[in-house]
Amino acid sequence: MTCRKQNRILMFDQLTESEQNQLLDHIETCAKCETYFDQYLLLEEGLDVLLMDEAIPLSANKKKSIPAILRPALLACASMFFIFLLIWNNDSVRAVIESTINEVIVEYLIKNMEPLEPENETSKTEKITYAKFQQPEGEVISYASGKHVRTQYENGDFIIYNDKYFATYSKKDNLFLIQEQNEENPMIDMFKDINSDTISYLGEKSYANRTVEVYLVKESKDFQSEYWFDKETRMLLKVVEITNGKREENEFLKEFKVIEVEKDHKLFDFIAPEGAKIVDETIQ
Predict the structure, then answer these.
(1) What is the pLDDT of residues 182-194, one digit of tens each?
(2) Which of 48, 98, 150, 228 could bridge to 238 as Cys pair (CB 3.0-4.6 Å)?
(3) Is 98 inside any structural domain?
(4) What is this structure's pTM?
């Protein structure tokens, strides 16, 4: 005979702190619920390994944890977690899974705005991403490090921006224009607010000679989008729009890699070409 509290265990992360503490007190006195809680933690840990190959920190109130030494075994026995999913196929379990996927996407998008980790603190170089695109108007090359981005166009134009300002250079007009940057990454708020029932993980694929992790968002009955994240850098490399089952794939990205440059590279400095007219709209 099962305990009525077991359904509360599946909703653990959605309970208030007071409700969690009450449930934990009950678990300490109920052998069935203690076993069930252990299984719940194992399932959640397994989902972390499957979806991210990283641990999402558990709530401070979850007094039990899975030892790190078990992680390889969890990954090797990944199929067991799908068996758990089949056994626990109910709305509460799905809510836990979908919420986890939602958090993964938001974390990836936030990671987009963080510089890559250096080899060591004393390194004289830094890692940045290099991307080459083929647009109808010509080749485009982009360098990025966190919120700092430089995009160069084949015709000689370029754009540099960070979280505060951006500068555009028009070779035709020989004009270097500096303006204030007020926009944040709008997709972060979108995924925080979106119904997690619409998000699913499609697994790993290969794109531009990179391993990517793909997530599907069902935005409406007739419209879906796939978001392709580079596994190493968490950068968003591709978005596929699907309307009434028809896929629209714009294969613009031709090359993507992580490169090392000297720390004084000045790629993201607002430096106008010699002789260009400079207009700084940030000066009041």
Answers:
(1) 655 555 566 666 6
(2) 228
(3) no
(4) 0.59
